[in-house]
Amino acid sequence: MPVHRLWHLSNFASRLRPYVTTLTQRSVSSQSATAAGTKTPFPEAALSQKPKSPFYFDTGYALFAKRPSRPFPPPFISLPSGSFSDPLSTHNRSRDRRPYVNGEMIRGITNGDDAVLVSENFICANDGVGAWATRDKGHAALWSRLILHFWALEAERDASVTSTVSSSEPHPIEYLQKAYEQTMAATSEPNEWHGTTTACAALLHYNAKGAEKRPMLYVTNLGDSQCLVLRPKDGKEGDIVYKTTEQWHWFDCPRQLGTNSPDTPKDNAVMDKVGIEENDVVLAMSDGVVDNLWEHEILENVIDSIQKWESGEGGRGTGDRTGGAGGGMLFVAEELVKATRNIAENPYAESPFMERAVEEGLAMEGGKLDDISVVAALCKRRKGG
Hints:
Blueprint: H1 3-16, E1 33-37, H2 44-47, E2 55-65, E3 100-101, E4 104-105, E5 109-111, E6 114-118, E7 122-127, H3 140-157, H4 159-162, H5 172-186, E8 196-197, E9 199-207, E10 214-222, E11 226-233, E12 237-243, E13 248-250, E14 253-254, E15 257-258, H6 265-268, E16 270-275, E17 281-285, H7 287-290, H8 295-310, H9 328-344, H10 352-359, E18 372-381
Antiparallel strand pairs: 1-2, 2-18, 3-4, 5-6, 6-7, 7-9, 8-15, 9-10, 10-16, 11-12, 11-17, 13-14, 17-18
Helix pairs in contact: 3-5, 8-9
């Protein structure tokens, strides 16, 4: 590594981690939050702009925040009505508490410092670096959410994703580069806010070569969030057919986008085209999951949840429950978050993060308490697709 590059990273680290981490410390906030759903909010105009792919995601997500998310600062959220002359209708923007940027409702949902987005063709899990909470003007949750928002917006606007005429393929790294540049602009003066985030997303498209169309997954990753593709077999077991590779500068310092970071999407993001099959399960997860569960544990948990769903457990479905369809991905995500929390909050458990820490010569035992974000998506073919 060149000397100037080494100095740059050291300077980056000193600014990014202005505190001493005690690896054995673990506590759960009394205000920790959980949430779950099938899709994150989208404006009606975006919902009417259907992707052209003959395939779609049947989705669910579940979240656990180790501490509540910080409110977004102005101008990213509308202030409440401040005058008796303001309209009192809840439909008026003066009383709208949803966050906006550049006139657009910010896509996705925040989970602690994480952010996730769930739609029928695009899922994303970004992990904001919590150390920014100790710095003046630091707001990692804003950064993780804005990167996600602008990334999804670029995908929505690209004709290769939404047009039924275009034959070109999508370019997720280009979308992410534009999202990064737009986030830099949105968080610069006069609205200066600092932060960094990892980025991981899967865009569902298709391969149009030949007479038969097959689902194609465009997975983009920068940092240590993770995307897994699981293929259940006979309802009793399954295989991991794809996983992203974690990107690190050094232990517990992943590649990340934002303030003072040398990383950029065009130079450091990795995009893989993954041929998948109907009924494959795609997971997008923050490192709160993969630091606490090994891959085989994730696979076993998902397969077990699908079996329970097919047998009628897990709540009311919306139709055929085969393979986790009809609402089963919500149950899958919730069960995976529960399993992750069991390790994260256990001071005596064995975990992948503990194993890595010991390899680095650091004294640690138990799980790693962190924000936990899981998006589960089942690949399905549209009727007539």
